[in-house]
Amino acid sequence: MHMRSPEDRASAHNHARALSDDRQRIDKWLWHARIVRTRGAAAALAASGHVRINGARVLAPAKPVRAGDVVTVALDRRVRVLKVTGFAVRRGSADLAQALYADLAPAIAAGTGKEERPSPNAQREPGAGRPTKQERRAIDRFTGGQE
User: Which of 15, 32, 46, 147 is found 20 to 30 A from 70 (Cα to Cα)?
Assistant: First the structure.
């Protein structure tokens, strides 16, 4: 049995870490970037095929992601398109997590969390759409309250 000195072990650890600084498993990256809440959920998301790296579907949570890759994630009827800008050794705060990616999706309205789109009411003609409460009461009075 070969015994390694502490210096050899530290050297091997630093070498392995240097190799992993340019890439990371997709499940770990999704978890560190706070796209999902748990590492298990990140692994399940990747294994289910709801994640793409540079347009190619990911079917294994161990698929490596590199800086500059474009990751597309389908979550709860919402698609997020993210460009990988960095990696983290451990999961940190939300501010640190946002530094790991650049969001390539359409602009989000500040404070609302929703995409900036014109309101559907702004495009509706007067009298079109659902009646207001006042209009419903007028209809009830006109029809005698029976439908």
Answer: 15
